[in-house]
Every structure is written in structure tokens, then in C-alpha cells.
Amino acid sequence: MSKFKKKDDGGTPAISTASLPDIVFMLLFFFMVVTVMRDNSLKVQNILPFADQVEKLDKKNLIMYIYAGKPSPRYQETFGTEARIQLNDKYASINDVQQFIKEERQSKREELRDKLTTALKVDKETNMGLVSDIKQELRKAEALKINYTTKQGEAGLNLE
Amino acid sequence: MAKRAAPEVNAGSMADIAFLLLIFFLVTTTIETDSGITRKLPPIDDEQEDPPILKERNIFVVLVNANGDLLVEDEIMEFKNLRQATIDFLDNGGGLGDEACDYCQGPRLTSSSDNPIKAVVSLQNDRKTQYGRYIAVQNELVAAYNVLRDREANRLYNIDFTEMEDAYNDPEFLGDKDKLKEKIGVIKNLFPQKLSEAEPI
């Protein structure tokens, strides 16, 4: 008998998957760090335009969000494809904007009220008519600080 | 007593659990976009004041029509030339005497603005203009101001204007904030951002 026994060849050995959880956890932590919880569920299409001369918005609690755009595909049957405004979680009409601003103001501490900024998250395909109407309402409500929320990028990308 | 090795725990399902958590986070969270172009709206005046009289040459009219075409000072313009045209207009410095601008580097044409302090950019759009286009134009106009402010800030303080503003807005900034504010004010006075928006037609 030979001294060197041939290894019995039982197929390829199983690949260790022990590091798989570590990798997935790494991904998980990455996502936990870079994202925030969704506070409003979006009911409108919201592809923001690009701009590169942007300022960062700090102090999350001092921002009021107004969304506008076409209703999302699943709502289009009931609400059509005309651009709409979304305040909080509901569709709203242009007349609700002043009331919304008033309520948001009420919910903040008094000394912070004049520091509130309105962030307009408007889909890039919306007509300016709607945006102008919103701006007009904001002027009436004396919420004069606004911010056109945009994605970081060359402005030329909007033209395509 | 004989020492027995602890049996290995089967960690095969750990990956599944981690995936479950991962997918949960993917679904419930968003990557927040929290930057944008900040603007101030004009307050509504009850009493109708007469608008200040401006010289025609001090107004830079930018018109965006429903198709997104640009009409600048009555001439059709390509989008990519808008920034430079705005810079040329603001930096012209064609004024004489009291209205002279000693820091402008423009060609001092008599057909363009007297002085950046007098110059007003007027942006008009149609109700059917797409928002994306409007933002693109708005962005170019702000960019023109930033280019000029950067230039002056570099000349006076050897630092970009945008850098100064970022530092000023940074809560962890350690330097002298009052001094920085003063410097920003000086630059802002040299090139005040006078952007007027007409209500859409």
C-alpha cells in the first residue's frame, strides 16, 4: 500500500459564507447613516431640478415643506395629471397654503417664528404658473424666506 | 472533568436577518436633499408706491418663454452664454462722476450698466415655463453674482466669497464671526444682488 493516501475527492468544498452577514451589516449601517426617515409620503411626482449655486439648509425643524408636481402614477386615475400641491400628507389647493403656513408657525416656539424658511420641492416639469401662485400666497402669508430645493448638479442638465 | 469545546452556533440565518433590516431601511428612508437656491420674496405693499425710476441701461431683462427660450435684452440668447452676458452687464461700470465704479473691470460701454449698485436684473417668465428651466436661469444669474463677488473677495481678502459664506454659516467655525460678517457685508455692498421678478404673464 502506498504511504500517501490519495485524498478522497468529495467534490469542491463549500464556500464559507460567514462574512456575508458582515457585508450586509456594513451596507445596512451605511444606509442608516446617510438617509433619514421619510416623514411625508409623497403623493406627487418629485424630480427636483439641478443647480450648482446652492446653499445648504440647516436646522431641519425650521423648514416648512411644500411639494408640487403631477400626481404619482397610482393616483393619476383619480386626480388626473394636472400638477398639484401637497401639504403634509394630503393634496391641497392653492387656498390652503396660507392656513398651512399659519399652522406651522403656531407649532414653533415664538422666537423662532421669523426664522422659518419655506422649502419648495417642486417637480421640474411643473409649470411656473403654479409656482407663482404659491409664491403669491406665501407673500400674503408673510413667509418671505423661500428656498427652491434642488439637486446638486450642472444647471444645463435641466434643459434636456 | 474533560473540557468539551462549545458547539458552534449556526450563523447561517444571520445574513437573512441583516438583509431584512437592510430592506426595511431602504424602503422607509430617503436620502434627503436639503440644499437649494435661497431667495427672499418681496413683501406685499398695501399702499402702491411709485417704483423708483431706473435708467433703461441699468436694467437687464431676461425673458423665459413657454418653450424655455431665452430673450435677453431683446435678443435671443443661448442658455450657455447667459452667465457671461450677466457678468458683462454687471461689471460694465459705464458710469461717470458719482456713478463711477472703480473696481469694475468691464469695457465701460455707454449702452450697459453704470454701476453694479445701480444694475437690476429683471427676470420674467411665462405661466407655462417649465420650473426646471426657470431654476436653470435663476441658477445662472446667481452664479454671475457669485463669480463677481468671488473676484472682489479674492482681491480684498484673498479668499472666495462663497467660502466666507460657508464659513459664516458653519456652526463649528472658530474664527471671528463679526469680522467675517463685516467682510461679507463689504462684498455684498460692492455687488448687491438686485434680482427682480415680474409676475408671469
Question: Could you write a compact summary of the structure shown?
Answer:
Chain A is of the alpha/beta class. Chain A is built from 4 helices and 9 strands. In chain B, strand 3 (59-64) and strand 4 (70-72) form a beta hairpin.
Describe this structure as you would to a colleague.
- The complex is a heterodimer of chains A (160) and B (201).
- Chain A has 160 residues and is of the alpha/beta class.
- Chain A has a domain at 58-154.
- Helices cover 27% and strands 21% of the residues of chain A.
- In chain A, helix 4 links the parallel strand 7 (117-122) and strand 8.
- Chain A is elongated.
- With 201 residues, chain B is α/β, with parallel strands linked by helices.
- Chain B has one domain.
- Helices cover 37% and strands 14% of the residues of chain B.
- Chain B has helices at residues 14-28, 82-90, 131-157, 161-169, 177-190; strands spanning 29-30, 35-40, 59-64, 70-72, 75-77, 120-125, 195-197.
- Chain B has a five-stranded mixed sheet, covered by helices on one side.
- In chain B, helix 4 (161-169) crosses helix 5.
- The mean pLDDT of chain B is 81.
- The chains are: A alpha/beta (160), B alpha/beta (201).
Largest interface, with counts of residues having CB < 8 Å to the other chain, equals: A-B, 59 and 54 residues
Number of domains of chain B: 1
Q: Per DSSP, what share of the residues of chain B sits in E-state strands of 2 or more residues?
A: 5-15%
Unreliable residue stretches of chain A: none
- The total of beta strands of chain B comes to 7
Count every helix of chain B, treating DSSP H or I runs of 4 or more residues as helices: 5
Low-confidence regions of chain B: none
In N-to-C order, the SSE pattern of chain B is HEEEEEHEHHHE
Protein name (chain B): TonB-dependent biopolymer transport ExbD protein
Keywords (chain B): Cell membrane, Membrane, Protein transport, Transmembrane, Transmembrane helix, Transport
Subcellular location (chain B): Cell membrane
Family (chain B): Belongs to the ExbD/TolR family.
